Amino acid sequence: MKNYDVIIIGGGVSGITAAISAGNRKKNVLLLEKNETLGKKLLLTGAGKCNILNLHISSNKYISSSLSPIDMKNHISSKNLKKVSDFLESLGIVLEHRSDGRVFPKTQSARDVLFLMKKKLKKNVAITKTGKTVNDFVNRNGVFTVKCKKGETFEAGKLIIATGGCSYAGTGSTGEGLKWAQNKGQKIEEISPALVSLKLKKNPFFIAQGQRCICSLGLSQKNCMVFSTKGEVLFTGYGVSGPVVLNISLYYKNKKNNQFLFFDFFPNHSKKHLLKIYNERSNYLKTKDVFDVLRGWLPEKIIKCFQKHFPTEKSPEEVFYRLKNWTTEINDTMGYDNAMITKGGISFYSISKKNMMSTKIKDLYFVGEMLDITGISGGFNLFWAFHSGLLAGEHV
Question: What is the tens place of the pLDDT at every residue in 307-349?
Fold first, then answer.
């Protein structure tokens, strides 16, 4: 049996990055992936265009139950963003910066990013074995033995686990790495689907499904606003979706917590200003009917939802108050199969912040989505995958 310096389980972004990083230091690396191809989840990012980073890197774009604010700022920094950018450019990836801070490969192709990462793996002489499902691993006398199906085993002095969370199970992320970690004594912070669409109780927007609208959206629990944002909301048969909803889902706890969404359909106007516009439009259109005035100003489907759920509210004051303060209860998320990422994971209380090594088992490392840190959408989570992979690869 060949003994490697490092075995990496998981051929996603963080696993490949760790393999390249270790290979740059002339380490003898074995990368194991259960799928027949590497980087399956990477190909989905940015609808295939690969929103790879975000220039507006900041610790307030992330949440964690176990990483201290100081440690969070140390990791989520412009210095580390430059380090990741330099790494990507060293692979031959040309980065294109957009005005909103998002960063894409110039080719607008996740496949091109994956191709260049695989090319670098090959150049570093990292051994890649796909179609290898790992059942478990053991550590005896400083040697890790990785056990695969069909009785295959591989050995190394150091082990990096990069198997992801539970989101998009079709890409191979089924949470087995979290179970291994827990069995080895690692604390797991509660996990849940994140960056996911939300179901609403007695969905008041059912007849508006397919409609998109710019809103301010707030999430509240126990009469306290937890998070608020503004942007395009997509109304669906089950509830709401769209980029701002995905971000707000990061702060949703679970269906036991009675959390509510607040909609403001006129986020750029005060109620007083709305009434002024109403009077101007009313005179121009020669009608006092508030819903006739709203047509052409607010989508018809939203107006119909309002008339159905608030049939007695017809005065301009009542209607505009409700449209700026429409509240509905969240029922649940759309689950892991529809979530972009898994929130929670391996607690940083038992992980070295310096190199991602377990403080429970020497020379065992965890990287990427498995760890208890999650960012909003827009390239922030890919940054963490690259950053944590680089860190581990530099220290094995």
Answer: 999 988 889 999 999 999 999 999 999 999 999 999 999 999 9
Residue 304, H or E segment: helix 300-309
Beta strands in 162-280 (DSSP E): 188-194, 198-200, 212-221, 224-235, 239-241, 259-264
Token pair for 31: 């990368």
Domains and CATH numbers, the chain: 3-193+338-395 (3.50.50.60), 198-333 (no CATH)
pLDDT digits (tens, 9 = 90+) for 162-221: 999 999 888 888 899 999 999 999 999 999 999 999 999 999 999 999 999 999 999 998
Q: Do the Cβ atoms of 340 and 41 come closer than 8 Å?
A: no
- CB 117, CB 90: distance < 8 Å: no
Q: What is the rounded distance in angstroms from the CA atom of residue 268 to the CA atom of residue 191?
A: 36
Across the chain, mean pLDDT equals: 95
Exposure string of 14-28, with b = 16+ CB inside 10 Å and e = fewer, is bbbbbbbbbbbeebb
Report d(CA 164, CA 356) in Å as an integer.
15
